What does this fold into?
Amino acid sequence: MASKIKGTSPGQFRATRPKGGDNLLSLVDAPERSPVATRKAAVFLDRDGVVIEEVDYLSRPEQLKLIPGAARAIARLRKAGLKVVVITNQSGVARGYLTLKTLREVHALLRRRLAAQGAALDGLYFCPHLPARAGGKGCDCRKPGLSLLKRAQARFHLDFSRSYFVGDSTTDVLTAKRAGCTAVLVRTGKAGRDGVYRVQPHRVCRNLPAAADWIIGAGSRTPALRRQADGRRRHVQGLPGP
Ligand SMILES: [Mg+2]
Ligand SMILES: [Zn+2]
It folds into this structure.
């Protein structure tokens, strides 16, 4: 079973949609039925080693420590109009290292710590299952599976091709590439040295704040800046520049 924390399902919006005439309420639920042309860009974030310090199977709220600058980076990404969604594998639940209740407490604390620095997440999705190689049944929500990203896509009307995935492991890079997102590897946490998959990111950044700088630059609405950013991206993908 995949789980998500908080949030309003599209169904709840539909249930309260007025039959007509109430412009204010119609505006409120408009994003839930955006046409494809206005699909949004998101920045998917891995949790451990990207937003918070990597701890082997973090199992107690006291172990939670934000990576320096992470909260401000998240606030800047959202201010730039991007949805910010955490996607995290937490097999410690299936392994019995922590309960779902404790995991929810950890995530509530994470949101409070971010809020204390003016940042919020649009969504946080986790897979609590065991990987198949550890004897699990093989769910489709555990990264590099895409079902958690697809749930966020449906909820926020996201365009994967304009979205980014910032992670510290080769699993995150593979997830990004399978979804068609731009894969950004950070040098915090595992720093891409886990050796699980042979896969190259589109971009390597020192940490989440540096990744946010690059993403916001790449998404600039100024045509000159956008050409620059596109050139950078073509360069890192090994394609000819402008
Ligand atoms: Mg990680
Ligand atoms: Zn799963």
